[in-house]
């Protein structure tokens, strides 16, 4: 009987210990959150950058020639280092 109670309390203790861990929050609307993240990054990186409707920099403009797709400066170019 003592072994049964010990085993049950061990199982119950482990079950409660794992129940306290939280999973990272995932959004069901990931498309909207990525757009807002890109908008925030592009505003902080280049406020005068011309953007396409999908949020990527428009490469036709001189200011955007050396930007990555997310709007941050491309570190391969000397003036962005």
TrEMBL record:
Compositional bias per record (Low complexity), positions renumbered to this chain: 26-37
Location of region: Disordered: 18-81
Cleavable signal peptide: 1-19
Entry keywords, A to Z: Signal
The UniProt record lists the keyword Signal: yes
Basic and acidic residues: bias regions: 51-61, 69-81
Protein name listed in UniProt: Pentapeptide MXKDX repeat protein
């Amino acid at each position: 009987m003592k072994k049964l109670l010990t085993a049950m309390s061990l199982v119950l203790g482990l079950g409660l210990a794992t129940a306290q861990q939280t999973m990272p929050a995932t959004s069901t609307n990931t498309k909207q959150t990525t757009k807002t993240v890109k908008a925030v990054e592009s505003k902080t990186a280049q406020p005068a950058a011309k953007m396409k409707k999908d949020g990527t920099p428009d490469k036709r403009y001189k200011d955007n020639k050396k930007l990555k797709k997310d709007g941050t400066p491309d570190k391969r170019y000397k003036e962005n280092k």
